[in-house]
Write a structure and sequence with these properties.
The chain has a two-stranded antiparallel ribbon. It folds into two domains: 391 residues, MFS general substrate transporter like domains (Growth Hormone, Chain: A, Up-down Bundle), CATH 1.20.1250; 53 residues. With 494 residues, it is mostly helical. It is found in: Cell membrane. InterPro entries: EmrB-like, MFS, MFS_dom, MFS_trans_sf, Sugar_transporter_CS. This is MFS transporter. It comes from Streptomyces hesseae. It is a multi-pass membrane protein.
């Protein structure tokens, strides 16, 4: 086997004492992950109503989305390290409680600043919750076939949850109030919390094995991401050549470069080079970051297109996204899950990215005339099938083969790529759309932005083909994951 084509699985045998409650534990993990992913988009459909009530401008409306995804993505690596340090079950339950409290604060907001702050706080606790959820999944399911089924469900949630959020947002906005798009998280978190206490198990390292927290890395990495995203959002009112935008971009790049250098020198780095330095893992993470740019942009623009241009109600808008949800679930559970053990991962990722790029390209032909059946529906199906093919192999490649001390941060890296790609993509594409719309109309602005999204999706296909060279696992293998690597004499079950 060549050194540049490592397998994505090891060759160990399954543990005889697999947790008999593991599938019920998957339900709890899936419920929490659904809440986190759903909240990235549930406010999309509520956004026009919230914008009117709280007096947001078009240029700043995207901060309701971006404040969440940026705090989420910027702090995920820290959340992963906290999970490795104090235990994944503990951080999972802490994240659930904090997320519920932040959601309640957001639902009660009476100013745009309060809403932005609550959404950011949601992102903070999501950053604690998500990596522990994925890490618990990878340590619970180690048999390759079982893991394929579990990851199929997880992939469907990761992709379909965003679209489910749009449908739920439509129902709540139309029949209750936009604020219930935030309040709804409270009962969901409570159910997940009770299930976690009863069903989930975790192998927590002893004090001598717990990694320290890289707070300087947090400041450099999160500061750089905030600067870059804020620069993209301010480019529309100020212009790309303005001192403010250029200063933010340059400052963000400098901070991110300093973060990368510090990670090679820190005693306990936030993002260990050994995790991201692997060719396949790094390629999978980059593929995820690029792929979600167009998808998040599509959610934002199609919501406004359907409500503001076509005159759809919030509920009808949410239901109009059902084909996208169905396509993601179908591709994740019936195609990716079945082919993951037979094909190299890039033979799923690349066709998926090409399908999604084609779907986004269809939206460049939008006009102010009703075009749901002719443009939006085919686009949803293609994007849904494409993202369903991408999510599962990306998550599997990015989390396989890591040492137990890095399982939390490896899981966090996948979520970071998704949220950072979503936050930068939403800010960038919103700026492009609003800039073009000034002289050419709102719909033309959406169309141009979707053209950029299609181009970025093509970049994801190229990255996956060039960098992800892992082979398909051999028949009968189990995944080399944290559950097989821990020393029972150095770990405690909680």
């Amino acid at each position: 086997m060549s050194s540049n084509e490592p397998p994505i699985a090891g060759s160990e045998t399954p543990e005889a004492d697999s947790d008999p409650r593991r599938w019920w534990g998957l339900v709890v993990i899936a419920l929490a992950q659904l809440m986190v992913v759903l909240d990235a988009t549930i406010v999309n459909i509520a956004l026009p109503s919230a914008q009117r009530e709280l007096g947001m401008t078009d240029a700043h409306r995207q901060w309701v989305i971006t404040a969440y995804s940026l705090a989420f993505g910027g702090l995920l690596l820290l959340g992963g390290r906290i999970a490795d340090r104090i235990g994944r079950k503990r951080t999972f339950t802490l994240g659930l409680v904090g997320f519920a409290v932040a959601s309640a604060l957001g639902g009660a907001a009476h100013s745009q600043g309060t809403l932005y702050a609550a959404r950011a706080l949601q992102g903070v606790f999501a950053a604690v919750l998500a990596p522990s959820a994925l890490s618990l999944l990878t340590t619970t399911f180690t048999d390759l076939r079982e893991r394929g089924k579990a990851f199929g469900i997880y992939g469907a949630i990761a992709g379909g949850g965003a679209a489910i959020g749009l449908i739920t947002g439509g129902l709540l906005t139309e029949y209750l109030d936009w604020r219930w798009c935030l309040y709804v998280n409270v009962p969901i978190a409570l159910v997940a919390l009770l299930g976690a206490v009863w069903l989930l198990r975790d192998h927590r390292p002893l004090p001598a094995d717990r990694p320290s927290l890289d707070l300087l890395g947090v400041l450099l990495g999160c500061g750089g991401l905030v600067a870059v995203v804020y620069a993209c959002s301010e480019a529309e009112p100020h212009g790309w050549s303005s001192p403010l935008v250029l200063g933010l971009l340059c400052g963000g790049v400098v901070l991110l470069a300093a973060f990368a250098r510090w990670q090679t020198r820190a005693r306990s780095p936030l993002l260990p080079p050994r995790v991201i330095g692997d060719r396949n893992r790094g390629g999978a993470v980059m593929t995820m970051a690029l792929a979600v740019v167009g998808m998040f942009g599509m959610f934002l623009f199609m919501t406004y297109y359907m409500q503001a241009v076509l005159g759809y109600s919030p509920l009808r808008t949410g239901l109009a996204f059902l084909p996208l949800t169905g396509a993601i679930v179908l591709a994740s559970t019936q195609i990716s899950a079945r082919l993951m053990t037979r094909l190299p991962p890039r033979l799923l990722m690349v066709p998926g990215a090409l399908l999604a790029a084609t779907g986004l390209f269809l939206l460049t032909f939008l006009t102010p005339e009703p075009a749901y059946a002719s443009h939006v529906l085919p686009s949803e199906i293609l994007v849904g099938l494409g993202m369903g093919l991408i999510f599962m192999p990306v998550v599997n490649v990015a989390t396989s083969g890591v040492a137990p001390r890095d399982s939390g941060v490896a899981s966090a890296t996948v979520n970071t790529a998704q949220q950072v790609g979503g936050s930068i993509g939403t800010a960038l594409l919103n700026t492009i759309a609003t800039s073009v719309a000034v002289g050419a109309g709102v719909v033309h602005g959406f169309a141009v932005a979707m053209g950029w999204g299609a181009g970025i999706m093509l970049m994801a296909a190229v990255v996956a083909w060039v960098l992800v060279t892992a082979r398909a696992p051999r028949h009968g293998q189990t995944t080399r994951g944290p559950a097989h690597d821990y020393d029972p004499h150095r770990m405690r079950v909680v």
